[in-house]
Structures are given as structure tokens and as C-alpha cells.
Amino acid sequence: MTNKGFDTTNLHSDRSDHPEHGSLHKPIHTSIAFEYDDARDLAAVFQGKKSGYNYGRQQNPTVNALQNRINRMEQGLTTVAFSTGMAAIGSVLFSLLRQGDHLIASAFLFGNTNSLFNTFTNFGVEVSFVDATDADNVKAAVKSNTKLVFVETIANPVTQVADMERIGELCTQHKLIYIVDNTITTPWLFSPKTVGASLIINSLSKYFGGHGAALGGSVTDTGLYDWSDYPHLYDNYKTGSASQWGITQIKKKGLRDFGATLAPEAAHTLALGSETMSLRVERACRNAQALAEFCEQHPRVRKVNYPGLPSHSQHDRAAKLFSHFGALMSIELVDELDCFDFLNRLECVVSSSNLGDTRTLAIPVAHTIFFEMGAARRASMGIPDSMIRLAVGIEDIDDLLADFAQALG
Ligand SMILES: *Cc1c(COP(=O)(O)O)cnc(C)c1O
User: Is the CB of residue 285 below 6 angstroms from any atom belonging to ligand 1?
Assistant: First the structure.
């Protein structure tokens, strides 16, 4: 099925790979082992001379169907799924970096990604955190040992939008691996391939599945990076087209050696959720826009961070890059209002840490997800103690607005 729209392609993804028995969904295969009538075929699969399944840690038919689906959404060359978004990010670093390498990351990162990068400094990888809303800051940080640049599309929780086009040009010029975490925008709002991304990360746990009922992550190789010159690839994986070398190593190291494997049951749940992605995300984006406009006008809200507001520093960039402005925002209340009291007064907004659920979720950022990094780093990231992150869901907008109105008092 070629040249069809985003939804048509996604809805018919499993079918176009002809699942067994004419099933419309790829069935859940739970077997971790696979039998071969001819032992020579088993050997050929192990040696990479034939495609096939050897052991569930490395490949599974249900997971493969999900990978194909993500790959179509991201218009990638190859996609590998992992047990979580963090497993996907960790596997990329673990596979591609060595002691003495340097990476440049946006200073405005998902808290656990920030923590993971700091952990890698203990293994001799240098990390520079820079303000990636301006590509000049990335440019100034490039060194002779720089291997990759990592940014998020819309940063959590202050919603900065990275200077992705210019960073893409810079990475091409310096032959750097360019990694874009597309979790907050989803492939429906934004295609990182259009800004030159080499690898695309998606946490499937968020908007992709959309139900908050299964964890997963993925890495998509867009085919734009030339792996033939990359120094840390093992000769074993340098067979066939060079376009596959990088993702093959990520798969071998991340799944086979590290074991960050997605379970087939989760793959099925995530695939089902993804079929309504465009409907859910569009509705959530519309709700977020209305709620952001409401909060910006409200006297008891000091500040609203949402890329869909003209007051946002990267509003024009977001309008150019994304089809909608996302469903993530943060607000700061006026001093007299305690953020915990406010959260407790909300009725249809749930106090919870997740995002990308169908329900609207809220969390006091400094006291929870960004607590561990300490006050100094929070201040440098523009996160005051009163900040509340809102992951807007698909409820009826009138109910959300009424709930905020009563809770703000
Ligand atoms: C949640 C999230 C991750 C990590 O994903 P998990 O599936 O929770 O491990 C990575 N990046 C971003 C932007 C996220 O929001």
C-alpha cells in the first residue's frame, strides 16, 4: 500500500503484510523459540544469511508488525522496538558510543533522559547540555570527538521548541548522528525526517498507544545518515548495504546483548491504540489550545507555556514545523495559590505523572519528576516551584474549562 495517507497506511499496516489466516490484526505470538524443519535453515538464520526468527529476545512476529507500522508512520528505513522509551534511548547510546566520545544534548530534556546522559559521563562519555532553541549554541559545542546531537521536538515541561532545521543542517555538515525524540509530537504532528534526523525516538507509552496501558519505545533509522564512515561499528554488522549497519548494531547490542525487548502483548496493545492516534491527538491539541487561551487570560495564572500561543518564544517555528501545537503545556500560578491545593480541587483532571493518556493529567513538576535534579538545575531550566505540567486529554472541553475555572477560584 504505497502513497496513501497517514491514517489509511496505519490502519491497513498489518493487513498489507498479510497476517496468518487473513487476520486483520497481527496475532499475539508468545512463543520465544522457533522450530526449523531443516537444521541448515536454523544455522542460516543465525548467520544472517536468511531472514527468520531465532529467539524472542531478538525478534518476534507481533513486535515486527508493530515495527513495520512505526516505520511506515515515520517513513523510515528500519525501525526497532524496545521495552520502553528509555530502553530505546539507552540502547542507542550503549550501541554507538565509546569512552572518549562527546555528545551534545538539549538542556531542556525529559528528566530521565537527562539522568541517563549524566550516567554515561561515568563511563567516559562527555556530555554538553546546550540551549537547543538556537542552533548556534549547538554549533559552539561541536568538538573533534562529538558523535551525536540529541534533541526533543517540544520540551517537557516548559515546551521549548528546538531549532531543528538548522541543527539538522549542522549535523549534516559535521557528519554527526542527529537524534530527534518525537514522543511529544508523534509522527502525526511532525516528521523528524524532514529536518534531517538520522534516528527518531518514540516513547510508545505516551500518545502512540494513547491509553496509558502499555510501555514501549522505538528507534527509527531514516536512512539519511551515512554509516559507512562511522568508526564504532563492528565488522560483523558491516555486511550488505551500509544503510543498515547502524540500526543492525543498535538492534544487536540493544536487544540481543542488553535484552531491552518489547513483549508481544504490549506490542499488540500499542498497535491497537495507535490506530486512533490522529483522532485522539487532534482532539487533545484542540483542547490544549482552548485551555491555554483560557489560562493565559485568567488573573490567577501568572504564566502559560504552550507553543500554540502567540506569546510563546518559538510559536512561529512550531507553526512552521508541526501540523498542530501538541497537547502538553505548563502553567505557573500566582503566589497566593498553592499548587497542591489547586491540584486537589480539580475534579476531572487527574494528579498523575504520565502524559499522552486520553485523560487530562497534571503534576507539580518541581516536587516530582524534576525533584531529583535539584533546585539549581531546575532554575537553569526555567522550572519554578509553582509550575504545573498539564498533559491535556480528550475530555469535553467545556468540562475541562469549568473544572479549571472552579479550581482557580
Ligand atoms: C516518556 C518519555 C520518554 C521515555 O519513555 P518511557 O516509555 O516512559 O520509557 C522519553 N522521551 C520523552 C520525551 C518522554 O516523554
Answer: no
324 Cβ closer than 6 Å to some ligand 1 atom: no
State pTM to two decimals: 0.97
Query: Topology of domain 6-274, per CATH?
Result: Aspartate Aminotransferase; domain 2 (3.40.640)
- pLDDT-wise least confident of 40-49, 86-95, 395-404: 40-49
Whether the bond into 157 is cis, omega within 30 of 0: yes
CA of 289 to the centre of ligand 1 (A): 23
Superfamily covering domain 277-408: Aspartate Aminotransferase, domain 1 (3.90.1150.10)
Query: What does the pLDDT look like over 131-157, one tens digit per residue?
Result: 999 999 999 999 999 999 999 999 999
Task: List, by residue range, all CATH 3.40.640.10 domains of the chain.
Answer: 6-274
Average of pLDDT values for 84-92? 98
Residue nearest to atom 2 of ligand 1 (CA): 203
What mean pLDDT comes out for the span 7-26?
A: 95
CA proximity to 295, closest of 358, 323, 337, 344? 337
The DSSP 8-state label assigned to residue 263 in this structure reads P
Cβ–ligand 1 contact at 86 (below 6 Å): yes
200 in ligand 1 pocket by Cβ < 6 Å?
no
Q: Would you place residue 2 in the very low, low, confident or very high pLDDT band (cuts 50, 70, 90)?
A: low
Task: Establish whether residue 152 lines the binding site of ligand 1, counting it when its CB lies within 6 angstroms of any ligand atom.
Answer: yes
Helix (H) or strand (E) holding 341: helix 339-345
Neighbours of 28 (CB within 10 A): 16
